[in-house]
Amino acid sequence: MLTKITFGTDGWRGSIAEDYTFLNVRRCAQGFANFLIEHGYEKESVVIGYDKRFLSEKFAAAAAEVMAANNFRVFLTNTATPTPVISYSIVEKSAAGGINITASHNPPGDNGFKVRNEFGGAIDPKNLKEIEARIPANEDNIRRIPFEEAQTAGKIVLFDPAPAYIKQIQDLVDLEMLRQAGLKICVDPMWGNGAGWFPRLLAGGKTTITEIHNQRNPLFPGMLRPEPIPPNVNEGLQTTIESKSDVLIITDGDADRLGLGDENGVFIDQLRVFALLAYYFLEVKGMRGAIVKTLSTTTMLNKLGKIYNVPVYETGVGFKYVAPKMLETHAMIGGEESGGYAFHGHVPERDGILAGLYILEMMVKLKEKPSQLIEQLFKVVGAHYYERIDTPFHGDRKEIEQRILNSKPSQIAGIAVTNLDTTDGYKFNLEDGGWLLIRFSGTESIIRVYTETTYSDRVKQILQEGLKIAGIE
């Protein structure tokens, strides 16, 4: 089935066997090849990796055949591989870019085609549009060489990306300290690419790990999707209580995002995790540098920026905005509301594994469990409360957007509205330093309503008023 392929936040996602077909994957690969050739990268290397979704390894092989036929040397991962490991491999191999076959945290029936630049980071919106424009309309203009033939000719090389990534992690995190700390860690890789990584990195000492959902199962049983938020993480939270673990580490389907549960089986939202990571870098590690955040994440970062005298830059939603800004500002840390965080000295790409290790390192160095870390953070920046509602929308999107613009509320849940930011969606900034954001998903027909506030008793009311503003009762 030939369809118009539109690149969203990170690339293209579709429904397997409906629009996500081998032909359309090859079309995307040809478009990426055309883009790289036109930008002077002909005959260089590309890295291709994939996740554990249905047929991902076959789709990756199809993309490899196209890139090889376009005179690129393809380094294809020898197994399903976390997105951050694929991204680091691009840098380690001095490749021109990369392709990642993954739909990340989407529902089981989806798959995706992500592209990365030579830094291992997300490609900016302008260049994503250029790639999209170079996707051939049909199969006539697709170059392709059979996989076995390309492999025999050395055009496709299978490789193990783990050793180089592990060496990089050893330079960033004190793994031996974590191994000997005696922590009891529960890990939920959500049936995805993060399975086995924490046991591999932390085995051999006093620390013990209980890992669940660590087999390949493209149906992601027990959860709506491999996204590290409730209710998808409820089994992990319960296992944390039953195993008497000190912390729950959760990685999403492709392991580029982090979810966190405390020692009591209570979920810690990703805004608090981002603030914890920034606080750890600033206060404990003594680092200084810019913070890059999307407009949908926490204002606790702005407070930390003022306290520690570091700049804070706000971008649109998605790492296609965060990664370029991190490179531009030599940022210390960058991240987004959905649990993706990137770090100085590493690739400008979300890394759920490294983020989890930094949280563990923070626990050991401060000798505190996650609930205590949150208490310490709130002593510095004050308590903040966050929640989000995702709901399908019906009708014309432009009409909904006009309704939101016309609403012009002076207050929301009794809190004065200070201004409206339309950089990416519709963000009503509130007098308490909180906000209400209404925006459309870049990958699904879903409208998202988010809020962060210093009033614990007004979260639900703010969200309900947000739905009303959008005309969704």
Outline the secondary-structure elements:
Blueprint: E1 11-15, H1 22-38, E2 45-50, H2 56-69, E3 73-77, H3 83-92, E4 97-101, E5 110-116, H4 125-133, H5 147-152, E6 156-159, H6 162-172, H7 175-179, E7 184-188, H8 197-202, E8 208-211, H9 234-242, E9 247-251, E10 258-261, E11 267-268, H10 270-284, E12 291-294, H11 300-308, E13 312-315, H12 319-329, E14 333-335, E15 341-343, H13 352-366, H14 370-381, E16 385-392, H15 397-407, E17 411-412, E18 415-421, E19 426-430, E20 435-440, E21 446-453, H16 459-469
Helix pairs in contact: 1-2, 1-4, 10-11, 10-13
Offer a quick outline of the entry.
The protein is an alpha/beta fold. It has 16 helices and 21 strands.
Description:
This protein is of the alpha/beta class and 473 residues long. It has 3 domains: 153 residues, 3-Layer(aba) Sandwich (Alpha-D-Glucose-1,6-Bisphosphate, Chain A, domain 3), CATH 3.40.120; 209 residues, 3-Layer(aba) Sandwich (Alpha-D-Glucose-1,6-Bisphosphate, Chain A, domain 3), CATH 3.40.120; 85 residues, 2-Layer Sandwich (TATA-Binding Protein). The protein is built from 16 helices and 21 strands. A hairpin with a 5-residue loop joins strand 20 and strand 21. The longest helix is centred in the N-terminal third of the chain and has 17 residues. The mean pLDDT is 95.
